[in-house]
Amino acid sequence: MNLQMRPSKCFLYETMSRALSEITSGVGVDVASGNLKNRWMFKTELYVGIDINETRLRSGLKTHPTPDTVAAVADLRVMDAFPTGAATAVVSTNTLHHIDRTNRVSVVESLVRMTAPGGVLFCTTPLDTAFPGVLAALERSFDDVKCVYYRNVFSRAYEELLAPPGRAERGAIAATKPFRLLAWVVSRLEHLTKNRPAGCTFAFILCRRKSSPASESFSLSHLPRLDERLYDARRPPPSLVASVRPPG
Ligand SMILES: C[S@@+](CC[C@H](N)C(=O)[O-])C[C@H]1O[C@@H](n2cnc3c(N)ncnc32)[C@H](O)[C@@H]1O
Fold this sequence. Notes:
9 helices; Rossmann fold; alpha/beta; binds S-adenosylmethionine; 9-stranded mixed beta sheet; globular; 22% strand; 248 residues
């Protein structure tokens, strides 16, 4: 039983961990992984956490000290340093809504680029005006695209009342075991609405490629290291590169 403070998170992590449990080979890439808190869901041979926040990555690497866990500091809007078609699972959850709507499709396209033939891409995205573009980009690239809708009216009411962002005192109640159990009970209602976007505010999109020719091997060895298992995949923005190019 996955006990979270928010019913929508209980539902999401339960759905995601079930989907990820089937992917046991190759490399799993967790884009905007934060402190690697979703590491436990990945059953791939190697896990790569990517985030812009180096401190969170370092903290996650401390919690997961084994060589099958590595991380890279990068901005998910500039992920050209990562290999093409080499990750068996590419996942990005609870993050795309932080990206400007105009940039969201290009971020999703880089997740698509990194996914191996025969691999899977799982991401969450808000049901806002950028959603049709995100979905169309995924449908162009994958044989099988399935949306699971979540954060329904019951979850939102619970979260508004007991776990609103920025209201620490109410969050403290929601963090207690009895309320986490209550959140789990409310999350059962997400199963009633998961096939319909109406009334939900987020989609968890599960994409699979059927074709599985030999894929590229995943390597970060071309990147500078910040630590034994921490790579630096930050790239200067193209405008900056252009402005420092020598004249002539
Ligand atoms: C809400 S957390 C999500 C963590 C985790 N994926 C989850 O499902 O709980 C959002 C993460 O996105 C990262 N982030 C925000 N903007 C980013 C960017 N432009 N590039 C890379 N990471 C970014 C933040 O540092 C933070 O760790």
